Amino acid sequence: MESFSLILATVVVTALAFDFTNGFHDTANAMATTISTGAMKPKIAVAMSATLNLVGAFLSVEVANTISKGLVDETGIRPEVIFAALVGAILWNLLTWLVGLPSSSSHALMGGLIGATVASAGFGAVHGDALVTKVLLPAVAAPIVAGVASMLATRFSYGIGGKAEGEATRKGYRAGQIASAGLVSLAHGTNDAQKTMGIITLALIAGGSIAPGSNPPTWVILSAGLAIALGTYIGGWRIIRTMGKGLTDLEPRQGFAAQTSAATAILASSHLGFSLSTTHVVSGSVMGAGLGRKGGVVRWSTATRMVVAWVLTLPAAALVGAGAESVTDLGDWGTAVVAVFLVAASAAIWKISRREVVDHTNVVAETEEPAGVVTAAIAAVTPPPAGMITEDLTATIASPAATEPATEAAPPAATV
After folding, report:
1. Alpha-carbon gap, residue 191 to 188, rounded angstroms
2. What digits encode the pLDDT tens for the residues 332-348?
3. Helix (H) or strand (E) segment spanning residue 261
4. How many CB atoms are closer than 10 A to CB 19?
5. CB–CB of 241/367 below 8 Å?
6. Which residues does 392 contact at the CB level (< 8 Å), separation at least 6?
7. How much of the chain is helix, strand and coil, in % rounded to 5?
């Protein structure tokens, strides 16, 4: 077992706390569509996802090596830098969870690491080529590729089975959706748990506990897998609601297409060592599935908010990480101040979230999307359907009986 200092132990605990937030933040990636289509009960879905996340953590260490060896200069990093990076990542995860936006935990972690590293050792300590090729380019390409693949898979599914709408067909697609959701969970554990493994390994190298270039020790793999599995089981219900109902309405065959496309992209990226955002991939797949069905719609206002969160994630976490590093650089008391701030801010966010509780009992409730300008304008000028009487209608032309004096009846015509 590696020797530990107090700051190194603090970093490891904080990293596992980030891994926990990563788990409940990203539960929606695997299970939102499965829950929203009714293929699985919410609690059963998150339990299955948690188990497979744990299994997936043992499948590869390529992404962990990208974090610990490729993104920043590991020889010039202190444990305090990594602690500051984790503070930025955790706070961004909690803020986006509070508002129900599925942002990238991966980019939050890497943004925090880059910001803290730059504040500590300058821009030269960040490997720009690895940042571009293994982080930024996949961030742009992954949701597009997954979305197009999901759209084509959805259209193909409806094309070959468009007339098959019986109960047996729906059950078949639900079974396929459960299997594909399990594959996404496995892929998520393989990709995202490794990021925490990489950050802990980097901390161990920075603290002198293991040699530079080492792979994650077994205890690091196990603890990271358990932390992300526990977070997944807790369930990020707010984000599950957004991904499952707030973005588009999915039928079982659409959910199957979306999850299969996402799992394929995530597993391929894990094999290549790309630190891919599973949130970006799954969100792109869900939108592609929504567009792939004839008459399907995507709620673009929700999608726009998600994209804004994606763009802000890396720089926002980097700024917080840089600020936290500036304080920890003041000494042990500075590190203690940052730790107290992290705990207090996390507690405040949790308390605010209790004002409107979202859990497994109401996660599939319908969400009301605010109407856009065009939609509101059309609704304002569209007449009500024929035969509909509303209380708001008032007469605009007064009746003759109300405006003219009544006239006496004419005498009967004379008879001859």
Report:
1. 5
2. 899 999 999 999 999 99
3. helix 252-272
4. 30
5. yes
6. none
7. 70, 0, 25
Whole-angstrom Cα distance, residue 141 to residue 275? 13
Instruction: State how far the Cα of 104 lies from the Cα of 143, in Å rounded to an integer.
Output: 12
Return the CA Rg of the chain.
27
Mean pLDDT value across residues 260-274: 75
d(CA 345, CA 326): 18
d(CA 302, CA 195): 28
DSSP symbol at 72: B
Chain center to CA of 369: 18
Q: List the structure tokens of 345.
A: 């801010």
CA separation for the pair 252, 166 (Å, rounded): 12
**Between residues 245 and 308, the one the model is more confident about:** 308
Tens digit of pLDDT for each residue in 168-186? 677 777 787 788 888 888 8
Cα–Cα distance for residue pair 220/116, rounded to 1 Å: 22
DSSP 8-state symbol, 405: P
Average the pLDDT over 283-312 and give the result. Answer: 81
Q: By the 8 A CB rule, do 280 and 104 touch?
A: yes
Report the sign of the C-alpha dihedral through residues 265, 175, 298, 32, in that order: negative
Residue 337's pLDDT is what? 94
139 contact partners, CB below 8 Å, separation of at least 6 = 104, 107, 276, 277, 280, 310
The dihedral through the CA atoms of 86, 201, 188, 314 has a sign that is: positive
Q: Tens digit of pLDDT for each residue in 346-375?
A: 999 999 988 888 877 776 665 444 433 333
Helix (H) or strand (E) holding 259: helix 252-272
- Bigger pLDDT: 296 vs 388: 296
Strands annotated E in 129-208: none
pTM: 0.74
Q: Give how far the C-alpha of residue 10 lies from the chain's centroid of Cα atoms, to the nearest Å.
A: 27
Instruction: Give the pLDDT score at 339.
Output: 94
Give residue 88's pLDDT: 92
